[in-house]
Structures are given as C-alpha cells and as structure tokens.
Design goal:
The protein has 201 residues and is mostly helical. The protein contains eleven helices and no strands. The longest helix is centred in the N-terminal third of the chain and has 26 residues, at 46-71.
C-alpha cells in the first residue's frame, strides 16, 4: 500500500468514527504515523482528501456489487444482501459524518463534480438488468430511472430529517419505502420472493 492509499484509508476510518470536521490533518498524520508534510504533498487540502476518500468508496462499492451479484442466486436476493450490508455500514458510521457532508462539504462536491464520482448510482444497474432477464422484474420498466430511484431511496433510509429515528425504525422505513417500491417493479414471481425474504430481513 503506497502513501496515497494509506492516507485515504486512514482518513476514511477517522471520518467514519469522528465525522469530517473533527478530523484535522494533524490528527490524521498522528494516526498514520507520518508527517503532515507528506499528506500535503499528495492532497492540497482537506476537501481534496475528502474527494479522494469518496472516490475510493465508489470503487469499493462497485467491487462489492459485483461480488454480491456473482454470489447471489438472483437479483432480488442480491438487493436484500446489499441492503443488509448498507445498513451495517451506515450503523457503524458516525452521525457526524453525514451531518458534516451535508453542512460543510456539499458545496465542495458540487463545485468539484468533475473530480468526484459520488454518488454513483450506475453501480447497481447490473442488478436491475439481471432481474429483468431472470423474469423477477417487469420488462417494461425504465432500467435507468428505476435504478436511480432505488439508489436514492436507499440513501434516504438513514436521513434523520426525512425519517426521524425517534419516530421510525430503519426496518420500518425500508419495509414501507424500499420493499413496496420493489414490489411495484416486480413480476408475480418477484413479488413472491420479496414476501419470503422480507420475513427474514
């Protein structure tokens, strides 16, 4: 692992635990056991580092989707598995990370959209198209539109402003939002499978 990868990996760990604002270049350097100068030789500032972390997350997401799809019996099983992984990932992430992304760094991502691949809804398109081939999703759906809807729907599950934690459990939100949407794009065979998997979710 070279210095760039070490810095991105270390920053991702600290961002997940403490949020973005609380992590300084000094604390990152101390965490990694390297000089701050070394970090600045690779990343001009913290915003550039954040984009590096998000792009690395996108690559890992692509690899994860491919792995889950390859190891799953069908597209619906893959979606349920990805939901479980996503829930575990978000539950282990500091709420401060999500708050900092929205409050302090959204403008950075918008201004540097050409350098940042997040959010990359294209990662899951393979799941939708394979579901149609397996006759679990209806063939008349617009795959690109459906994929975008599912992507942002899943992202919204952990949005405390949309679905306050004190009012709704994440399981309840997924059941009422994501699963009902999946039923709407599914064939009778797909709906039957969703009903079975939902009981185990």
């Amino acid at each position: 692992m070279d210095n760039r990868e070490r810095i991105i990996d270390g920053a991702a760990q600290l961002f997940r635990i403490y949020g973005i604002k609380s992590v300084t270049m000094d604390s990152l350097a101390g965490h990694l056991g390297m000089s701050k100068r070394t970090i600045y030789e690779i990343f001009a500032d913290k915003d550039e580092l954040l984009i590096g972390v998000l792009n690395a997350m996108t690559i890992k997401q692509k690899e994860l989707v491919k792995k889950v799809v390859a190891e799953s019996d069908n597209a619906i099983v893959a979606i349920f598995r990805l939901l479980e992984i996503n829930m575990d990932h978000i539950q282990n992430m500091s709420p401060a990370f999500q708050a900092d992304m929205k409050k302090f760094h959204q403008d950075v991502l918008m201004n540097r959209a050409d350098k940042c691949e997040m959010p990359d809804y294209r990662n899951n398109l393979e799941v939708i198209t394979s579901g149609i081939k397996q006759k679990l999703f209806r063939k008349d759906i617009n795959t690109d539109l459906v994929n975008r809807c599912l992507h942002y729907m899943i992202l919204s599950v952990m949005n405390n402003e949309l679905f306050p934690f004190e009012l709704f459990s994440r399981r309840e939100v997924i059941g009422n939002v994501v699963f009902h949407y999946l039923r709407g794009i599914s064939t009778p065979e797909g709906i039957e499978m969703i009903n079975k998997l939902e009981k185990k979710f």
